[in-house]
Amino acid sequence: MSHVSNKKIANFLFEIADLLELKGVQFKPRAYRNAAQNISTLSKDIKTYYQEKKLQDIEGVGESIAEKVEEIIETGELEYLNELRKKFPETLQEMMKIQGLGPKSLMKLYEELGIKSVDELEKAAKSEQIREIEGFGETSEQNILENIQRYRKYQERFLLGYILPIAKDIEKQLSNLNEVERINLAGSIRRRKETIGDVDILVVSTDSDKVMDFFTNLDQVEKVVSKGTTKSTVIAQENLHIDLRVIEEESFGSALQYFTGSKSHNIKLRKIALDNDWKLSEYGLIDKHTNEKIAGENEKDIYEKLGLDYIQPELREDRGEIEAALKGNLPNLIKMEDIKGDLHVHTKWSEGSHTVEEMAIEAKNLGYKYLGICDHAKILQIAKGMSDKEIREQMKEIEKVNDKLDGITVLSGIEANIDSDGKLDVKKEVLKDLDIVVASIHSGFKSSEKEMTNRIITAMQNDYVTIIGHPTGRKLNKREPYEVNLTKIFEEAEKKGIFIELNSFPERLDLTDLGCLNARDYDLFISINTDSHSKDQLRFMELGVSTARRGWLEKKNVANTKNFNELKKLL
DNA sequence: GCCGTTTTCGGCCCGACTGTTTTCAGTCG
Q1: Is residue A236 pLDDT above 90, yes or no?
Q2: Is the pTM of this model over 0.85?
Q3: Closest nt to A107 (CA→C1')?
């Protein structure tokens, strides 16, 4: 049996969908995408479904896709996909990523001009061949050239942590307009997804033209993609697409619900509406027979009329939230106000840019009761790791800061490195005097799942370890998570009372939302830390809390919601 | 290819916008 992740299987199916779309096949692409989407967000390993012969229990997976998944698990390959691939040049699929070009246009360009790569497309556009083809013109040729530039420059999704402030700023500028009566961010940014494709903003306005003019002339706007009376799209810095929609007041709630998604959440919701002989759209919840509007102005009413508890945006991923809302079983999600401190930040002692005192004052300003200083230890020379002697010196400095400041307690800690054998780079004599020991992996990412899991489990046998830092090691857009059996880590954490970190750094958000969802099955604490390297970064806590909310975590699951004395006991 | 208190066949979300075409097709979300 080959080693394949849920994500890998989903990618096989996504590719089939793309190729079938190029082929002009109807409906099947959607079926494959739907199945792929559901597989990629399963909380369990797909191999458990395979072993129990229950692949068809996965929504969107029927007989045919189940067979294909079995083949992938058993052989690591899929004959059907290999055959499909032969029909099209590999690079054609890649071209689907270019904005504005879909399967129809691409096939036409391929058939008429033999264009099968981005470079060839660029050449044809430059030599004015494309405008000769029916359905294309000078403008589309220009657009193609422009979109090729963007495609080359930006291929990645945006990290929530960096886009959220920009989106909030634009939201604020718009909300200051007299013509704007209601405004809300929607889409994946409202669900606080770790990466987002674009920003959606909805407004109710007395003067749509004026709002659209203002929006398309914002300082941040580099290009106006489209401008209408109900919808405009602009491109801001770094190729960030922002949509603004002007909605009628009476439909604002249903539009907000609709544009917040996720897609699969909405599909399920619509189904419930249909069961009641209603239809749900961006315009409202409407009785199919009388055309009477049942709800629409406020989002909460829609959930209520459908017989559901209100579902927080972060939960709307079709991971069981609708079923829970029907039964009144939704979790009481953790909130920013529940956070009493941050247990993992850096200072000038290693790679941080502020002193212990500066960090402590900032933390106090945020309303925290405690702050854990966990600089790197000696192995991480690249990050100015501290020697044992320096650790002792830092402990003295922390004492002084504690004497000086009221209302906040600074805890001394370390971020120790787990080496290839699972040993830490700090001696036990030093560790025993520290309040917090974060143990994390910073190298050797390529080890097998078994080795990696063993390394961490071995580190957890060290009696002084209190937190396992960024447990999967992923870096969004940069590095895949390392192979690790989280179930075993969770079991050990439960046994030893060790916290699992949810690292709030925008690139990390690790433990992931799905990881949190799984961790709920264990009697353990998550510690939401920022890993701040400067005092501004303490604000990343919001991202960690959002991720925890996406992972259904409640206040009781999170260690740093405890008051200082309770926390001290847990440590 | 999936799905089903309209269930084993026949649907599958649909509206806004753009560009080209003079009434609509393609793309996007």
Answers
A1: no
A2: no
A3: B26
